[in-house]
Design brief:
Distance between the termini: 45 Å
Largest sheet: 8 strands, mixed
CATH superfamily of the largest domain: P-loop containing nucleotide triphosphate hydrolases
Structural class: alpha/beta
Number of domains: 3
Number of strands: 8
Bound molecules: guanosine-5'-triphosphate, magnesium ion
Oligomer: single chain
CATH topology of the largest domain: Rossmann fold
Number of helices: 21
Helix content: 55-70%
Strand content: 5-15%
Strand order of the largest sheet: 3-2-4-1-5-6-7-8
């Protein structure tokens, strides 16, 4: 149902978690993704706008920096999603309840009443289902079958056309005291027309249900708001059940629209089977959308992702950039999709063009480098310049690692180049985290171009 929305939300949180810096481009592109996903789920445009503003505000909040900012942003995203979905409000049952389900044709009343009956019977309630849909010929039969199949008590009168008379049936009234949860199925219409209005009013007056629940299918999306309001103007509505969440992409719209009416969504149903019903809890719903256990797990994930990246960056920035770290970085870079990744560590640098073909054959080369490093003495690893001073060392290492001397030379060249690149970056800005100017970028990109000749 919410696969698409869920996928985009997960992607958005991952992007926040994995970015070392939340620059404007990233924030705006994440917001755009979120907007598209929410609108596709039929969430009201003005609600989406409000939501985006809150995310934007959190992202550009100057008072919050670094890791805290990411945590803050994820938290705001999480909270705001919960906020548009409304508060959790449980359907609290008293000792004796008479609950009437109302809704338009085909909204899912009869199926849902069986699901609810089964749900509460399993939790110890004495349940009876009463069929007051005398409008549709097959309605009684449907309720009967569902009740028998799931071993729930029921009462129907297939020959009576007046629902009030069914309700007043002496047999029913005599036996009804044995049950502490009476669930009433009512008739639907294509719209809330005069006929349905007068029927609902009459039923409400006579039965005096302790609660009345409006059943609406997810596919009506935002229209749920108007429908809920319209029904509320006829009889008091205690809450809502949204059905068919499994088969509509518009469930987000239906849920958020209900939240706007302040009528609580007690349950959602997500399938045709008897157990396909669950209490609606915005918190767990959002957690599921984001694919996380809860907010804490999510924040933990952000921290871990940032922790790793910070270390990487520290190494890259360090003057003590050893040849081992170089290979280590090159390997990571290879894993992560090459220099593109290094670029993403450095704000503003993402627009620098990396020549095509730069990353080809990288894997094999790195494998060789690992062998080379193993054949180097600890002293050589610390001072790779020794190799340049005494070329006999190069021959020895090449022999020991089973590569050509040119491979060793190439590795040294690339190491020096990367070191130089890092120094240049530092000189230009002193701190990568502040971002680079266009001019600095051009300079760096030029230097970067050197890598091309070396095949790095
Ligand atoms: N996929 C899916 N189908 C559902 C769900 N809930 C109900 N349905 C189906 O929706 C259709 C209509 O459900 P009913 O329970 O008959 O709806 P109703 O409101 O009683 O309809 P009327 O009595 O005609 O007004 C049936 O085919 C149900 O199987 C759900 O959560 N998921
Ligand atoms: Mg029905």
């Amino acid at each position: 149902m919410f696969e698409k929305l869920s996928e985009i939300l997960k992607k958005a949180t991952n992007r926040i978690a994995n970015a070392l810096f939340l620059d404007k481009n990233l924030v705006e592109s994440i917001i755009k993704d979120l907007q598209r996903a929410l609108i596709e789920a039929d969430v009201n445009v003005s609600l989406v706008k409000e939501f985006s503003e809150k995310i934007r505000k959190a992202a550009y909040d100057e008072r919050i920096k670094g890791l805290e900012k990411k945590e803050h942003l994820i938290k705001v995203l999480y909270d705001e999603l919960m906020n548009i979905l409304g508060k959790k409000e449980e359907l609290v049952l008293g000792k004796e309840e008479v609950i009437m389900l109302v809704g338009l044709y085909g909204s899912g009343k009869t199926t849902t009443i069986a699901k609810l009956g089964n749900y509460y019977q399993k939790r110890g309630r004495k349940v009876i289902l009463i069929g007051l849909d005398t409008h549709r010929p097959a309605a009684s039969e449907q309720l009967k079958q569902l009740s028998e199949k799931n071993k729930i008590a029921y009462f129907i009168d297939e020959n009576e056309k007046d629902p009030l008379k069914v309700w007043k049936n002496p047999d029913l009234q005599k036996n009804i005291k044995r049950y502490d949860l009476v669930l009433i199925d009512s008739a639907g219409r294509h719209s809330l027309d005069k006929d349905l209005i007068s029927e609902l009013k009459a039923l409400n007056k006579e039965i005096k249900p302790t609660k009345t629940i409006l059943v609406m299918p997810a596919d009506i999306g935002q229209a749920a708001k108007k429908q809920a309001k319209d029904f509320s103007s006829v009889i008091p509505i205690s809450g809502i059940i949204i059905t068919r969440m499994d088969s509509s992409a518009k469930g987000g719209g239906a849920l958020t629209a209900c939240a706007e009416t302040k009528a609580p969504v007690f349950f959602i149903t997500n399938g045709e089977k008897i157990n396909d019903i669950e209490e609606f809890n915005p918190k767990s719903f959002v957690s599921r959308l984001l694919g996380m256990g809860d907010l804490e797990t999510l924040i933990e994930k952000v921290k871990t992702a940032v922790g790793d990246k910070k270390q990487d960056l520290k190494k890259l920035e360090s003057d003590l950039f050893t040849i081992e770290e170089f290979v280590d970085q090159a390997k990571k870079v290879g894993d992560l999709g090459g220099l593109e990744k290094i670029k993403s560590f450095i704000p503003g640098f993402s627009s620098a063009k990396i020549p095509e073909g730069l990353l080809e054959n990288q894997e094999k080369r790195i494998e060789k480098w690992e062998h080379i490093i193993k054949s180097m003495t600890p002293e050589e690893r610390k001072n790779p310049e020794l190799l340049e001073k005494q070329t006999s060392r190069i021959s020895r290492i090449a022999k020991g690692s089973g590569v050509n001397t040119s491979d060793v030379r190439l590795m040294l060249k690339q190491y020096n180049l990367l070191k130089e690149f890092l120094k240049t970056g530092k000189k230009m800005d002193g701190d990568f985290s502040k971002g680079l100017s266009q001019k600095q970028l051009l300079k760096l990109a030029k230097k970067f171009g050197k890598f091309k000749n070396l095949g790095f």
